[in-house]
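ping. complex inputs:
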Amino acid sequence: MDTFIQQLINGLTLGAVYAMVALGYTMVYGIIQLINFAHGEVVMIGAMVAFSVIGALVGADTGLSAPIIVLAGGVVAVPLCIAVACTMERVAYRPLRAAPRLAPLITAIGISIILQHLAMMLWSRNPLAFPQILDNRVFHFGAATVTSVQLAIWTVATLMMAALSILVYRTRLGIAMRATSQNPLVAGLMGIDINRVILATFALGAALAAIAGVMVGTYYGIAHYTMGSLLGLKAFCAAVLGGIGNIPGAMLGGLLLGLVEALGAGYIGDLTNNWFGSNYQDVFAFIVLILVLVFRPSGLLGERVADRT
Amino acid sequence: MMSVRKAWSVPYCACIGMALIALALAVLPFALASVGTTWVRITNLAILFILLSLGLNIVVGFAGLLDLGYIAFYAVGAYVYALLASPQFDIHLPFWAIIPLGALVACLFGVLLGAPTLKLRGDYLAIVTLGFGEIIRIFLNNLSAPVNITNGPQGISRIDPFRIGGFDFGRGETFFGLNFSGPIKYYYLLLLVLVAVIIVNIRLQHSRIGRAWEALREDEVAARAVGIDTTRMKLLAFAMGASFGGIAGGIFSAMQGFISPESFVLVESIMVLAMVVLGGMGNVWGVIVGALLLSFVPELLRHTVEPFQRWLFGRAIVEPEVVRMLLFGLALVLMMLLRPAGLLPSAVRRRELARRSNLP
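pong. complex structure:
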């Protein structure tokens, strides 16, 4: 039972990160039906930038408290990631908006490789370590434990998702986004500047991705130039699980996927008589993806048919 | 594009041209060997990549299905060969028995992956295939315990080379006063396989199946309306592409003598895709050009990037490997933006990619 609660806690932490990244995929997909393959790299850049800033602040011995330093890292990372994502949209996706779907998908892969290797040149081939500044307080629930970093991740993720919901369902920009996702042509005729709405969508996704990058970096204490690809893929699986194009779906899908992974990794050894171990953790996301696509392609909360041409 | 009948009833001067190319290809390994055996090896790997690109071209170019996990089939072929012809289980079957088996197993995996997913729209398919590629790699990495099958990240070594009777592809021999080293023998074998694969590809493209794929790629609904069993055709494309990958994998395994999961990472899938895209999806000759370019340019970079930087900045800042990857990324992006049909586009593909819909 204690393992169960512990894995539940770990799963929810992982799930919060997946949900934040999945939102970026789902919003972009909802509006222009593009799988933004390079979204994972935005997460990576967020983590790398934040680590650099945090490292510099720690090295400069400013006497600031640890949470402020981490916050500063996030504050620098967000606008940079937004800039990267918007450039990406402008350079690689906008010219291909009317092209066959294969074309932007291939450029997205190209952009992803380019960003990864630029990051490697800028930072390093080796993982960056997070400076040990947070005193990670541990709270006990029976034999299960929650760290203060986990609590912080939950809080920030909840706040961000609440803010996003308000933005999408309560503001003019949100209305414009939803209109564009329903029918870009008609939305344009109603006076919505579609290009701006699409840019705004990319920017929102990138901001969430940057924060997710800071979170996952702080949680694991490490950032690496390849960290974005697998994380991005899993987040995409989460978005599909929840129903791609559907914002609450991405949140739900992220949390569920985190739980599946954590519980799966925790129990697979017992269930298969130690034939498979927790080193198969990365397989679960893809199995979930294939199962969802076979049995319920529209995802848990999606009502659209997936087979649109 | 040349129709098959025309290709067979070639005019006189084309015959001479072909003979010249054949002669050049026959002499090539000795010319390369005089520079260094490494170059023969590099050429062999380039031919392997042509084989892979042609296999992927069936899936991406002919049938229009984006497969991002293609290297998994290569891995399956390579591991089938390695497991059945190495000290790992102390099984040493002859290659002519294993290569078809490898193709068959890869084909089975192709069907296994395709059957549940081919009903999906293109971009979902891309992600699922990518996930599949990762799953295969994770399994190869971890199937070393509790029963050691793949030997995990250490990989399998001392794999048997190809052998027919006493003729061993791994050893050098001298015929007619010429020194046939191991790589040169493999070169001729690969060339033979390549010619066969090219012929199969061209015949396939103009066959009933090839036309069905083309129809399917152009407009799935219309294809179904004229009576094409789209799911079956897609599955066929997947299975065929996979078996070509399996064959290439088996040869790779024998040629290298050592394989590990490191050789079958996502980047390799993307590299093969870049070759297909760069050359021109759907055009056999274009794909060959793309594969040759992306195989040899990085080798040239390896020899020029560092000296050039030393000369320019006084020290090496960027490693050739990074330049290579940046080049792949740029090739993908720029090709799609500037010349979406590839360097040597197929006529149909060009028409298709030039078509613009009226969306904003």
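Chain A touches chain B through 57 residues (CB under 8 Å).
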